[in-house]
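Tokens for MOSC domain-containing protein. Go.
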Amino acid sequence: MVTSPPEQPGQPAPHEQHAEPEQGAAVVSVSLDDAHRFSKPAAPRIRLLEGLGVEGDVHAGVTVQHRYHVKKDPTAPNLTQVHLIPAELFDELARGGYTVRPGELGENVTTTGIDLTALPRGTRLHLGASAVVELTGLRNPCSLINGYQGGLMKQLIDTDAAGRITRKAGVMSVVASGGAVEPGDTIRIELPEGDQVPLGVV
């Protein structure tokens, strides 16, 4: 995780100094589920817990909670505490004949106005008044997506003009600062200092 220097007296916290508002960037919907199901029902509000994830969500925890990762190494750190997906993806899928609503792909936070997958690793997103998540990587779509809607998996993994695989199923993050998040909250972007490393799969 990105570490911040100590705060100086009379100075705003580092994340307040560098967090830039993104025009039109906002939270569209929030979701959580206390059991391992593919989709997560929408909620009026969620609360993020620092270092853990979404309060009451099955994927919250210090160590990995996704079943696939637990089988590999249950002691590994949980880099997938909060899943975010841009609502613009649903518009793209609709043009291909698929109807997908917020939470149905298992995300906790549905956003608008941000190209999430283009952000570098370590980017911090300030959600609402106090919650902050730090991006750790891309979600790797699994075959369960085809069980939800046939052929959808192929829509979420593509190949660009250079032959590189592109993944569109959103991004994963950890909670850097806790707080409540609800639809309509604005989003501010804080890019990491130093080299900008593209998001890899987590």
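The domain at 20-190 is CATH 2.40.33.20 (M1 Pyruvate Kinase; Domain 3).
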